[in-house]
Write a structure and sequence with these properties.
Elements (H helix, E strand, L loop, with lengths): L87 H10 L4
């Protein structure tokens, strides 16, 4: 298992096991224990969380003390699939390729 991938840049963080409040991505320096990095984060849910939290968390990209936090897991793949690091041009090319004869 490669460990946790950063919710922001998609790169490996080196964090394995429990994510602590002080953990940050070594590449982009984003906090890791955030709403955006949680498996319960859902932009369409009440307060953007699938859990029944008591109050909204105002800044979803900063570390917090939520008791419901569970790191969102991602799987490494050696297949050529889109990643958060792909350029806009690469994504457009892949999209256009879907409709070629």
């Amino acid at each position: 298992m490669p460990g946790l991938l950063c919710w922001n840049c998609g790169r490996p963080t080196g964090v394995e096991g429990k994510v602590m409040r002080a953990d940050a991505c070594p590449q982009c320096l984003s906090d890791l224990r955030t709403c955006r990095g949680c498996r319960h984060f859902d932009p369409t849910a009440r307060w953007q969380c699938r859990e029944s939290i008591e109050a909204p968390v105002p800044i979803k990209e900063k570390a917090n003390f939520c008791d419901f936090f569970q790191a969102r897991l991602a799987v490494h793949s050696h297949d050529k699939k889109m990643t958060p690091l792909d350029s806009k041009e690469e994504k457009k090319k892949r999209f256009d390729d879907l409709f070629k004869d």
